[in-house]
UniProtKB/TrEMBL annotation, chain A:
The lineage of its organism: Bacteria, Bacillati, Bacillota, Clostridia, Eubacteriales. Pfam families: BPD_transp_2. This is Branched-chain amino acid ABC transporter membrane component. It comes from the Bacteria. The keyword Membrane applies. Keywords: Cell membrane, Membrane, Transmembrane, Transmembrane helix. Signal peptide: none annotated. It comes from Ruminococcus bicirculans. It is a multi-pass membrane protein.
From TrEMBL, chain B:
InterPro entries: AAA+_ATPase (IPR003593), ABC_AA/LPS_Transport (IPR051120), ABC_transporter-like_ATP-bd (IPR003439), BCA_ABC_TP_C (IPR032823), P-loop_NTPase (IPR027417). One of its GO terms (cellular component) is plasma membrane. Residues 4-252 form the ABC transporter domain. One of its GO terms (molecular function) is ATP hydrolysis activity. The keyword Hydrolase applies. It comes from the Bacteria. One of its GO terms (biological process) is L-isoleucine import across plasma membrane. This is ABC transporter ATP-binding protein. The gene is livG. Its EC number is 3.6.3.-.
Amino acid sequence: MKKEGASAKTKFFKPQTRKSFITYAMVIVAFVVMQILSSGGYISSMLTGLLVPLCVYSILAVSLNLTVGILGELSLGQAGFMCVGAYTSAIFSIVTSETIENVWIRFPLAILIGGIIAAVFGILIGIPVLRLKGDYLAIVTLAFGEIIKNVFAALYLGYDSKGVHVSLKSLSNLNLEPDGKLILNGPQGISGTPNDSTFIIGAVMLLITLIIAYNFVYSRTGRAVMAIRDNVIAAESVGLNITKYKLVTFALTAFLAGCAGALYSHNFYTLQASKFDYNLSILILVFVVLGGIGSIRGSVIAAIVLVLLPEMLRSINSYRMLIYSIVLIVMMIITSNEKTKTFISANTAKFKALFKREKVKEAE
Amino acid sequence: MALLEVKNLGISFGGLRAVDEFSITIEKGQLYGLIGPNGAGKTTIFNMLTGVYKPTDGTIVLDGKNITGKNTIEINRAGIARTFQNIRLFKDMTVLDNVKVALHNHYKYSTFTGVFRLPRYFKLEKAMDAKALELLKVFELDDKASLLASGLPYGDQRKLEIARALATQPKLLLLDEPAAGMNPNETAELMDTIRFVRDNFDMTVLLIEHDMSLVSGICEKLSVLNFGQLLCEGKTAEVLKNPEVITAYLGE
């Protein structure tokens, strides 16, 4: 009966709740520290310029982890969904920049639109693609990501008094009136996006993403998704609709990637579709794998470390990529090797025990 | 009226006739055994009953409802739950979550409610926790609720699979070799559990088993399958004395 006290405590504060709250606290602390440092002028302008992209990459990593870690399917189309979100939200902002002047209304709307349209793309692509498994799914999502990128790179879009003009051929095919406004200029991309993204909005979005991700995992839907990951046949036998939950996860991943895309596009005045190539998708997958598949907090940490590292090492330019790759390999060994994992957990346990004993001694 | 009525069930894989003209009638509350040599088609019959395979001929009627050819999910909702010959747990999830997954279709809230933690989320999660713990208690697994399913000893994994199947609130429970790999003590304990489940959950049980002590100990009726065909059926004691069954399966 001595366990009663402990169980009452865990009931009040479940381990999963504690895990998520620690992550939220870490993000908030990091935000406050960076905010203080940047307002005091202690950090370089290069790092200041990285603050919003850091949020973007963290959101992308967390959202991809839902598909890779929780659903257990390999998707390489993350950059494609981000591209959809970036472009649609930027178009929305440019078109409405004169009608909706308040940034605090326009930008959240733009983010939401970017996310929703990316989610629609996610569902449309997911319906045929999620029938595939493993490598095949990875290949097809990679192809879809590239298709999305290339379509946007070839798209000309403008509007004038006669209405909206769209062309996939060339600028002259658009037949814009002299008073018309060009929004998308093919491979040169989109320009004139209002710079609405700030570090505060980025940090808040990252926090919302984390809340959504954690709450999703620890809900009825998240349980169903993890059950499908662990054993499809058993999941079917207890009456779970496999296709539905795969689609829900895929759509949520696409939605969050679209939101991140919106944050990204509003950070730059001009944006080309060529940025959203498969290298970006693979980079995000690297964040997820090195942060620990299924670990949401790990995704954020890996994204931040691996975005900052190359920038920090700029001073030793010629060795930069060498150190970066060594760090990648070391992290890979630590996070994926069963032996190193047990070694680390055993030693942290020892360390904790040591710490506890000292505390007891102090109390005595 | 019988709970499960299967008539002339048959399935072919290419040129192979795996099960032919199989019929079985199970009354409500019965403990029914399905035995036979390896490869006789016992698990294939389970797979047809649960919709994993679509039978090529025959009909399956559960509680007056024709469920022939329905998919796994529809059949589970109609009221058949099963366990597997090779244990299929959700191994990276906790014991408690394994059972909560199976409560999925009885405690419903939307993804939106879950993500934004509306009051309904807390209410239903609490109810699910209580229900799942109550089920785990029956199998003496409640103190292991927070462990990962893969960390359980073998016997407990078998029990958890039964608990999970029961959580879908079925009318008919199919157990595929529940005593496989258990020692005599564990088997005896399992027999008590199966009886307890039948009595306390108003359950009807159909089980496949090779362990004759379990079969003769708890099954009221038996069907014997050989080369995909019904060899004989009837009361357990009589079936086990049948000379045909002895030559085909039990050995002299």
